[in-house]
């Protein structure tokens, strides 16, 4: 009776582990879709701003998230197959995939954290230079569009304030046609509206576009970090369940 009871108890535990791992894989697949969605959203939403950044760390973090999300979705399907087939080799492969994805997300998290720490300094050093030296210059159309969108979306003018534009290459040239700020600084854009820099005509945001862009990027980095941590916690649970089920199947003589 004792031996039979132990066998029944072992079968019950194996079944429970199978169901737990199956439910985990469904959640893991959803989490993978969320990770990939956040990565795509990061690149698409306000993607023009990436051309204003001195380094590509922010974009690289997003691409890593997309890669990790795609791998998570594929791995979630593999995990379901491994649970149904109850093969140790499939479970071992599944565990290795979970570990690989965990390491990829760890790299993305470290990059996001490092970039978050130096974000303010980078913007202060490079944004003003990028805006004043490259705006409306030949071959710099992407930066020009990015600056115009930045100023309109965030209702700001200049990196620190509107006076930054007075020393820009564009404003000191004849091409500006007497403008003191780009037309994208205007509350209501009309041709040559940038000739008048009165607060009733242009945006006078405290801290300028640097403050707005820094907050925007910081919010995105926090979302990337939160989603990454959430999925990483799921992966740790999955690896524990996988090891337990692998051990149960290994001990089962049948």
Q: What is the element string, with H for helices and E for strands?
A: HHHHH
Number of strands: 0
- Number of discrete helical segments: 5
Mind summarizing the main beta sheet? none
**Through-space gap between termini:** 20 Å
Tell me the structural class: mainly alpha
Low-confidence stretches: 1-10
Radius of gyration: 27 Å
Mean pLDDT: 80
DSSP helix fraction: 55-70%
What is the molecular shape? rod-shaped
The share of residues in extended strands comes to under 5%
Protein name: Tetraspanin
InterPro entries: Tetraspanin/Peripherin, Tetraspanin_animals, Tetraspanin_EC2_sf
Keywords: Disulfide bond, Membrane, Transmembrane, Transmembrane helix
Subcellular location: Membrane
Could you please describe the fold and organization of this structure?
Helices cover 69% and strands 0% of the residues. It has 254 residues and is an all-alpha fold. Helix 1 runs antiparallel to helix 5. The longest helix is centred in the middle third of the chain and has 47 residues, at 88-134. The protein is rod-shaped, with a radius of gyration of 27 Å. The two termini are 20 Å apart.
């Amino acid at each position: 009776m004792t031996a039979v009871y132990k066998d029944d108890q072992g079968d019950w535990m194996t079944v429970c582990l199978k169901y737990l791992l199956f439910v985990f894989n469904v959640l893991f697949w959803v989490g993978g879709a969320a990770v990939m969605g956040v990565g795509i959203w990061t690149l698409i939403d306000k993607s023009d701003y990436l051309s204003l950044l001195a380094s590509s760390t922010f974009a690289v973090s997003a691409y890593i998230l997309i890669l990790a999300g795609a791998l998570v979705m594929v791995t979630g399907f593999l995990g379901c197959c491994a649970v149904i087939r109850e093969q140790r080799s499939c479970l071992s492969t599944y565990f290795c995939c979970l570990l690989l994805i965990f390491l990829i997300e760890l790299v993305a998290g470290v990059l996001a954290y490092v970039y978050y720490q130096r974000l303010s300094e980078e913007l202060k050093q490079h944004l003003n230079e990028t805006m004043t030296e490259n705006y409306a210059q030949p071959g710099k159309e992407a930066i020009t569009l990015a600056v115009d969108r930045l100023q309109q979306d965030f209702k700001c003018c200049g990196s620190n304030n509107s006076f930054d534009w007075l020393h820009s290459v564009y404003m000191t040239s004849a091409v500006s046609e007497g403008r003191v700020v780009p037309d994208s600084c205007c509350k209501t854009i009309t041709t040559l509206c940038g000739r008048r820099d009165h607060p009733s005509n242009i945006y006078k945001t405290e801290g300028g576009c640097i403050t707005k862009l820094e907050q925007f990027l910081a919010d995105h980095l926090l979302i990337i970090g939160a989603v990454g941590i959430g999925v990483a916690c799921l992966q740790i649970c999955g690896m524990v369940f996988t090891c337990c089920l692998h051990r149960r199947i290994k001990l089962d003589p049948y």
